[in-house]
Amino acid sequence: MHFQKALQLRTSSEASSSINSQKCIAETICNVAACDSGMQSHEQALKSYNEGLDIFRRVYGSDHNKQSAMAIGNMSKVYFKLDNQNKAK
Fold this sequence. Notes:
The chain is mainly alpha-helical. The protein contains 5 helices and no strands.
């Protein structure tokens, strides 16, 4: 609930279009995804991780950054929990 409130505050900010704000928004979305995964809402977690990853890709232009790598790694863990080893790899 607190991460969702933080996300609302970050996205409603007038400066939410700046690169730093976009990074913070993506990080918050990934934090929400981690909470969802911890509460066994794996499908929602995957949606959130993908949303965060899309923002990281727009900001950085590729997956060659720490944040994208962490999001992809966390998605792999969720796929493993869903017993989908092919996507987990």
